[in-house]
Amino acid sequence: MSEFLQFLFSGITVGSVYALVALGFILIFNASGVVNFAQGEFVMLGGMITYFTYSAGVPLAAAAVFAILVTCLAGVALNKLAIGPARGASVVSLIIITIGASIFLRGLAQVVFDKQLHRFPSISGDDPISIGGATILPQSLWIIGGALGAFLALYLFFSHTLTGKAVLATANNKLAAQLVGIGTNNMMTLSFALSAAVGALGGVLMTPVTLTSYDVGLTLALKGFAGAILGGMGSPFGALAGGLLVGLIEAMTAGYISSEYKDAVAFIVILLVLFVMPNGLFGRSALERV
Amino acid sequence: MLQVENLSSCYGRIEVLHGVDLEVHSGEIVSVVGANGAGKTTLLKCLSGVQPASGGKVHFRGEDISTRPAHRRTSLGLAQAPEGRQIFTNLTVEENLRLGAYLFNDDRIDKDMEDAFRLFPILKERRNLSAGGLSGGQQQMLAVARALMSRPSCLLLDEPSMGLAPKLVEQILDVVKNLRSLEVTVLMVEQNALAALGISDRGYVMETGRIVMSGPAEELIADEGVREAYLGI
Ligand SMILES: Nc1ncnc2c1ncn2[C@@H]1O[C@H](COP(=O)(O)OP(=O)(O)OP(=O)(O)O)[C@@H](O)[C@H]1O
Ligand SMILES: [Mg+2]
Q1: Alpha-helical regions (H) of B49-107
Q2: How far are the Cα atoms of B16, B34, B38 from residue B206, in angstroms, in the given order?
């Protein structure tokens, strides 16, 4: 029992990181239909910039805020410099552009920062909390809280604010969105900025537990993407649930079978789910007239 | 209210509007008729700004809006209900209407929405349903109602009756006619050219990207050539 609890805690912790990545995915996807494979680099930037700013003597909290803001700018730049000029190109081309952007950001991080693993102190120390015979790090609670908080904020944003609706409208019908007075370019900028912020938050929160380096982004992007797809690629709730599920499947596989299989099993489960439910677990039903 | 001078527009390298001149005065209802592919939709899109013009000028209420992006034209009071029920299928009927008034945040929105529901009662019944689940005709009504929510002083209507049953066509043209009393100026393109000219003050005839004729609506309705080519009588 305590063993199961231990796997559960670790699954929810890494699942929360995946959920943050998945939330970032759907933010950009909801506004533009683009799957942004540079999403993992936002997480990397969040962690790396915090580390180097903190090492330069800036207080941790300020360093984290700074990192999130800079990552926001990186997200806006990605939209303005890479996605924007190619607007009108097919979605596949846009996705390839984001893959290119992720390789570029990784290379840039390697040059500007370094190739080492880095960590900075946890928010509430490193004394494990024991629950039912298992333990959990205080930082894990921060990670879980971060994912829940980001989910809640995005849920409220899309369902209760006019700006959130405007983002959804822009994705659904750009022409009509312009005609009701929505500045569709601003909505795109906003989505990329928010998406980058959510990713960077993930990087800031996870680094004390998982460490970070210039190349953590790729795996995170794949896992987060899997979570987003599993959740139906649309609603914040789907992203949260999908991310958590991927984390849990991984942790259970690693715990009860072998950690060598954890990635494979996670992806097999996802393929099976999609085979049975092509719209993901929480995808919109096909009630849409085109 | 709206002055168009020598307006041209291209898709890629192919020019489809060749120097269109047109004018709509405050309080008027004006119709543009023409065969399929004449460039009517392209003309309205250039006026609302979703299609770039390659030459010429558009003045709206005395201001040159030729280079303004579409969403900044809407904020000036120039609204368009585009061709082919361009609604937000992922949002509810009510959210669609609310976004019609995206530029506003005041008490008048509720009142305007009630007005829209009075014009199209079926939308009220479906207000909380996904707009993507509406029938084609209902979506068309929603597109018109949404355009009205933006409090236009000039409304561009591109085939507002498309896909509607004959009785509803009449109803929607009634709605357009009544815009006169709300002091909304209308520039409209309609498949039912005769019915449209019937409620219009003036009309323009368009042929392959050019205005070939214009005049008071009664004169166009009486013209032999127009009757034969566009009115089917
Ligand atoms: N997106 C597009 N790309 C290329 N050519 C286009 C495009 N849209 C329209 N055209 C061309 O421009 C010309 C004018 O089209 P437009 O849609 O403005 O005609 P219309 O008068 O509105 O026709 P209809 O009565 O069928 O709606 C046509 O020859 C058409 O083939
Ligand atoms: Mg047309």
Answers
A1: 70-74, 93-100
A2: 12, 5, 6
List the structure tokens of B79.
């609204």
pTM reported for the whole predicted model? 0.87
CA angle A160, A165, A168 (to 5 degrees): 135
In a mutational test of the B interface, the residue from A160, A163, A179, A287 whose CB has the highest number of chain B CBs within 10 Å is A179
C-beta of B42 in contact with ligand 1 (< 6 A): yes
Do residues A13 and A209 make contact, with C-beta atoms less than 8 angstroms apart?
Answer: yes
For residue B149, which of B84, B184, B98 has the smallest C-alpha distance? B98
- The domain ranges of chain B are 2-84+153-231
Q: Mind listing the domains of chain A with CATH numbers?
A: 2-276 (1.10.3470)
- Fold for domain B2-84+153-231? Rossmann fold (3.40.50)
Whole-complex ipTM: 0.91
Q: Are strands B202-207 and B210-216 parallel, antiparallel or unpaired?
A: antiparallel
Residues B103-133: b if buried by 16+ CB within 10 A, e if exposed: bbeeeebeebbeebbebbebbeebeeebbbe
The letter for the amino acid at A167 is: V
Residue-wise pLDDT for A88-106, tens only, equals: 788 889 889 999 999 999 9
Identify the bridge partners of residue B202 per DSSP, sorted by sequence position: B30, B216
Ligand 1 atom nearest the C-alpha of B12 is 4
Q: How far apart are CA A58 and CA A64, in angstroms?
A: 10
Q: Which residues pair with B217 in a beta bridge?
A: none
Give percent above pLDDT 70 in chain A.
97
Mean pLDDT across B37-53: 94
The verdict on the CB of residue B192 being under 6 Å from ligand 1 is: no
User: pLDDT per residue over A181-196, tens digit each?
Assistant: 999 999 999 999 999 9
- B154 confidence band (pLDDT: 50, 70, 90): very high
Q: How far does residue B38's CA lie from ligand 2's centre (Å)? A: 8
Residue B85: CB within 6 Å of ligand 1? no
Half-sphere exposure of A18 (CA within 13 A, CB side): 31
B75, B80, B88: residue with CB nearest A169:
B88
**Beta strand residue intervals within chain A, DSSP E:** 129-131, 134-136
